[in-house]
Fold this protein.
Amino acid sequence: MERRKNQDNVRYMVTAAAMAALVFVLTAFLHIPTAQGYIHIGDGIIYIAASILPLPYAIAASAIGAGLSDYISGFAVWVLPTVIIKSLTVLCFTSKKEKIINKRNIVALIIGFIICVGGYYLFASLIYGSFISPVADIPTNCIQSVASSALFVFLGLALDKTGVIKKTLKK
């Protein structure tokens, strides 16, 4: 029994590390610069991680991948807000279903959209000392969230067809 638990923990840690690396690469290196930041699709991998990993592992993958991306990309001031926002976003998803694309995770995309757009607006307001100037970031944050959601659905459907959850993570 103990050996089985250790194997599961190792499997989750390795998967979380791979997800953090994917989030990092898709965020830090495959992004479109904007006036006050950048648009990326790394959140799509955060949603996948949240849909296949137990909560602490999914939070670690998202916080490490996204936070490191902000730091490496020259946006160190955003590391803490990003870690908080991405961790809250992960809470919306479930990994307790047989499929990645399920009703709860589709609803989570909408709630995650609100958390990300609203969270970055709130933190930008605090950082810039204005509730007006961060309004300019809302459209780019919306685009980022929608693009990441599309990646999540595309990858989720593909992974569901392979049965990845049953075959590897839920043994």
